[in-house]
Amino acid sequence: DNMKQVVGTLFFKDKKLLIDKPRKRKTFQMIGGSVEENESIFDAAVRECKEELGENAIFDSSKIKFLMEFDEIATSDPNLKIHMNIFIYDGVLEGELTTSDEIESFMWFSRNDDINLLSNTLKNEIIPYAIENGLI
User: Fold this and answer.
1) Whose CA is closest to 19, among 115, 129, 131?
2) In a 3-state reduction of DSSP, which class is residue 124?
3) Which one of 14, 44, 48, 111 has the fewest beta carbons within 10 angstroms of its own beta carbon?
4) Which pLDDT does position 1 carry in this prediction?
5) CA dihedral of 125, 126, 129, 130, whole degrees rounded to 10
6) CB of 84 within 8 A of CB of 121?
7) What is the C-alpha separation between 114 and 9, in angstroms, rounded?
8) Rounded to an integer, what distance in angstroms lies between the CA atom of residue 29 and that of residue 106?
9) What is the mean pLDDT of each run of 10 residues along the chain (136 residues)?
10) Contact, 88 vs 7, CB < 8 A?
11) Could you tell me how far CA 135 lies from the centroid of its own chain?
């Protein structure tokens, strides 16, 4: 189908979820992005983690596990339906995060933080899931 394929990877630490804010968006989102042509969703997830977290972040790509999938309306475009492929990192992210031309800032989001900072996908799907499953 021609629905846009998107990946997101969840990194948790101390009951907080790592999210980032792209310079061109108003809201924070998952670590992730679009799947490129002829790229598997797993390869896309690994590539996006490397791109967004920066070269000083240390993670083991074999610990990136498929978690769930769902369809969503893009936060950036109410007419765009996207198919979200969600992965979870089964480990602890090491090293340090680096901002870039694409990424303005990072945040470790806890359940007490302001939900209005978040993209629709985080607000509607991911945070409720994380709370329900004791991840945050």
Assistant:
1) 115
2) helix
3) 14
4) 52
5) -160
6) yes
7) 21
8) 10
9) 89 98 95 96 98 97 97 86 96 96 97 95 95 97
10) no
11) 15
User: How far apart are the C-alpha atoms of 54 and 111, rounded to whole Å?
Assistant: 26
Among 98, 101, 128, 129, which Cα is nearest to 115's?
128
- Six-digit token string for 88: 């979870």
Question: Which 8-state DSSP code applies to residue 113?
Answer: S
User: Cβ of 122: how many Cβ atoms within 10 Å?
Assistant: 24
User: Which amino acid is residue 106, in one-letter code?
Assistant: F
Interacting residues of 135 by C-beta distance below 8 A, sequence separation 6+: 10, 12, 15, 17, 129
Q: Are strands 81-89 and 4-10 parallel, antiparallel or unpaired?
A: parallel
Which pLDDT belongs to residue 62? Answer: 97
Query: How far apart are alpha carbons 111 and 13 in whole angstroms?
Result: 13
Q: Are strands 81-89 and 12-13 parallel, antiparallel or unpaired?
A: unpaired
